[in-house]
Amino acid sequence: MVKKVFLITFIVVIVGGVLFFAIDGSAKKEEGLKTVPVERGDIIDKALAVGRIVPEKEIAVKSKISGIVKRRYVDVGETVAVGDPLFDIAPDPTPLEFAESKRQVELAQVTFDNAKREFDRTQSLKDKQLISNQEFDKARAAYEEAELRLKLAEERLSLIQSGRTTVADLQVDNTIKAPISGTVLSILVEEGDPVVPLTSYQAGTELMTIARMDNLVFKGDVDEIDVGKLHEDMGAEIEVGALPNSKVTGRLTKISPKASQKEGSTLFEVEIALGEVSDTFLRAGYSANADIIITKKEGILTVPERLVKTEDSVSTVEVQDTLGVVTKREVKTGLSDGIKIEITDGLEEGELLVERPPREITGD
Which of 5, 123, 172, 284 is most open to solvent, judged by the fewest CB atoms within 10 Å of its CB? Predict the structure, then answer.
């Protein structure tokens, strides 16, 4: 009987020792492991656009007469209404231009005086029925043409001298007026600067720019990798560099059909209409980044994407149970934002995933 008890005790000790060393060895094997819980959260798949806040329409103000800037009526940042005066342009003809215009008026006056005398003479002969209607009509046409040429020469001289004239009931003057209501964004000339007029064959001098600041948009570039996922009316969240604590929402309104090359990258320009800006004051030219929301899921199971291993289209994770045992488990994944990934099957909320330390790289 004593031998039997001794034998049983010996067996228990041996088994206990084996289990102790097995568990102790296993624990040593798993030393240095970290665990990450499976949590519920939100994942947003988005495309990044880098650009600026700009007015939807920006008008460049130009002059239709040449000269120099005599007076400026407004400053940058001021609000103007349609028709408000912006600049006075003083004509600055060369001596030759002035002399030619003056002589053209004198020549036109001589021609007109001669034509008028001839017309008066033919009128008198016509009343006496001494000339034909054809001769009278010819004299009248010459008189009317000379009158028009005189007016044209006088109008040109008036523009050169004062910058003001009237043509066919249209008042032309040297005061440049605001073509739209808005805010003065920039002034590109100062008093005394020369001005080249806007014509059909030259662009003319840009005097200032005006825009409506209540209608700002975001314009930026999206990488070609993301542009295929975008469509109009997608929502966007805009971060303005100068306003780090403010976020502006918007809606994608335009996607360029043509790419551009910038610093070796293929980019597409997009435009985003801004939503309510609340108390945030936006200025034209602010640099900004826009996150265009492609897909958004809320309250889903998520894990760090770095813990998911994929081989041959099969995704697996390492799960640690309550006893500390680590097992490999197959899972199904969904939406990813590059940091977190959705788990659609294979895990429950609260389970612990194993995060192994990075392998050390040793030299030969």
Answer: 5
